[in-house]
Amino acid sequence: GQQLNQSPQSMFIQEGEDVSMNCTSSSIFNTWLWYKQDPGEGPVLLIALYKAGELTSNGRLTAQFGITRKDSFLNISASIPSDVGIYFCAGQPAAGGTSYGKLTFGQGTILTVHP
Amino acid sequence: NAGVTQTPKFRILKIGQSMTLQCTQDMNHNYMYWYRQDPGMGLKLIYYSVGAGITDKGEVPNGYNVSRSTTEDFPLRLELAAPSQTSVYFCASTPGGPYYTFGSGTRLTVV
């Protein structure tokens, strides 16, 4: 099946630093998404991207949909302790049929922020 | 709005035992999904449903069964628990498209 390779697997940073993580695939996706999972909770959607080349921000978060449609990037600026968690990329294939709505997830990036 | 509710939150099973993981959503979403999360492996799709009465296998369905008799409920059944099924299980729903709402998960240990 389709696979997403997410990197890095983990990051240990100081409060105030910027963070970058990315996701690549051998397949084309029509939609890229970034989720955050707090400890003991389910993932929560942060940003959704729908068009190749699209750059979208949500507060201190910025994500980009790669031109090739096979990758995406997430940046977090000026990190704070509550940014701690696991960040997942996810891709959605073309709409229609039984594929509709199904997401493929990356392995996750574990972010630790030291005060 | 409760969103997606999963029960139980934690469970320890002995090898060979059976159990049902419950998932209920109150948002009238047609699409529902079961994922398992293993460390460093992300989320893997077990089963999904596009509406009441319709279910289909995902990427890792072996050892599991589902049913969807109502729009609200999508239980996941483990018939003969094995240590490989030790994982955190997440249920999710969406009205359509990528806007998943996830439950808070069930942490299952099989010993």
In short:
The complex is a heterodimer of chains A (115) and B (111). With 115 residues, chain A is an all-beta fold.
The computed structural class of chain B is mainly beta
Distance between the termini of chain B: 36 Å
Q: In terms of per-residue confidence, which ranges of chain B show pLDDT below 50 for 5 or more consecutive residues?
A: none
Binned strand content of chain B: over 45%
Strand content of chain A: over 45%
First-residue to last-residue Cα separation of chain A = 40 Å
Largest β-sheet summary of chain A: 6 strands, mixed
Q: Would you list the SSEs of chain A in sequence order as H and E? A: EEEEEEEEEEE
What is the β-strand count of chain A?
A: 11
Task: Find the structural class of chain A using helix and strand composition.
Answer: mainly beta
What portion of residues of chain A is helical?
A: under 10%
Description:
The complex is a heterodimer of chains A (115) and B (111). Chain A is mainly β and 115 residues long. In chain A, 0% of the residues lie in helices and 52% in strands. Chain A is built from no helices and 11 strands. In chain A, the strands form 2 sheets. In chain A, strands 2, 4, 5, 9, 10 and 11 form a 6-stranded mixed sheet that branches. The N and C termini of chain A lie far apart (40 Å). The mean pLDDT of chain A is 90. Chain B is mainly β. Chain B has no helices and 11 strands. In chain B, the strands form 2 sheets. In chain B, strands 2, 4, 5, 6, 9, 10 and 11 form a 7-stranded mixed sheet that branches. In chain B, strands 1-3-8-7 form a 4-stranded antiparallel sheet, with no helix packed on it. The model of chain B has no long low-confidence stretch (mean pLDDT 94). At the A-B interface, strand 5 and strand 9 of A face strand 4, strand 5 and strand 9 of B.
